[in-house]
Fold FAD dependent oxidoreductase domain-containing protein.
Amino acid sequence: MSPISSHQHIVVIGAGIIGIQCALELQTRGFSVSVVDSKEPGTATSEGNAGCIAVAEIFPISLPGLIWSVPKMLADPLGPLSIRWGYLPQLSPWLWQFLLAGRRRPSEKITGELAALLGHSWSDHQVVAKRTGTEYLFKHEGFLFAYHTERGYKESAHEWSVRTQHGISYTRLTRNELLELEPELNPGFFAGVHVPGVRHSINPKKLVQELALEFKRNGGAILKANAKDFGFRDGRISQVFLDNGQTVETKGVVLAAGAWSGTISSKLGYKVPLDTERGYNTTIPSPAVSVTRPIFLVERSAVITPMEMGLRIGGAVELAGLKAPANFSRAKALLSHGKSALPRLNLENGREWMGFRPSMPDSKPIISRSGHHPNVYFAFGHGHLGLTLAATTARLIGDMSSTDLTPTEAIPFSIERFV
């Protein structure tokens, strides 16, 4: 299994935050790179990102006891985790693996693996930001967990204990201390927790666009098309066939097409249990309130993020696949939680959005070399951690493509775990 020689050409499929970061990283290692995507960089899932480098989000979505919540997920279409009835038959195999991952021992193992990976996320972003001049798109004000009730606050004690074990620093806040940090918050909150190590992007779409411009300035090509099939020579990909009739000769491929990666993976011999977490949000251009840092309304599963284009309020998870129409009642429900938390919030002219987070049932992304074709690399399935892990994923893909070795930290995220 020989590495790809530097100066050879690699195709990256996907122009979201993961794909563009991978393309930039490969350029720094001497490769010639083309990005293939029918959409402009940053205009799909990356556009509506909540913006957080979420180093504290070390837990899988499926946790012990979640199985008993499935009836509620089906009954409440506006709940924090919901399933569309019509999608249940198709979702069932994924859902079964999802529930198995939530058992105590598997979930504890996954938590440790995610924590180890997330521990590198900001340092990796920082390297790229300095190199590309995009530091101005990040703020360092930390992240607030705001608890409406004493019960919610006390029930979170175990999670915070686990975060402590994994080296995540935080400060517990009384109601008054919470309001000192964010005076616009409703004084009815019980308490909060501040995680100082969290940064956030003030414009995730612009971040991807700026990185894409840097990639092009360095000689990279962005081809506006879809990859539809591949040509092979001696067990390695040698050609990428595009739906515009073009054929691209290549020495390697990185698949970073987010929620659309499953179909392409199947053409490479893998049947991966990839599905989507639909995310909804509303961005308010003139909110009339001042918020300094992202705030997670814990009991409501809603995130409020201050950005340069306004205040973004979103969150929660809907499992409904790629084809069902959007249910913007979810965005409206999240917006009402934001209004409750920020009583002076002006809701006028909000722009609703829905996007597809690529989701694996064990909440672990695939960051991996292919066992079938040694010049194929996978970088998808990051769920709600796409922006967070983009630079780290790119570094690991760069390491794999440059050497015969898989970095130790990438081993738990191999695609072979589904073979």
The longest helix spans residues 386-402. The radius of gyration is 21 Å. The mean pLDDT is 95.
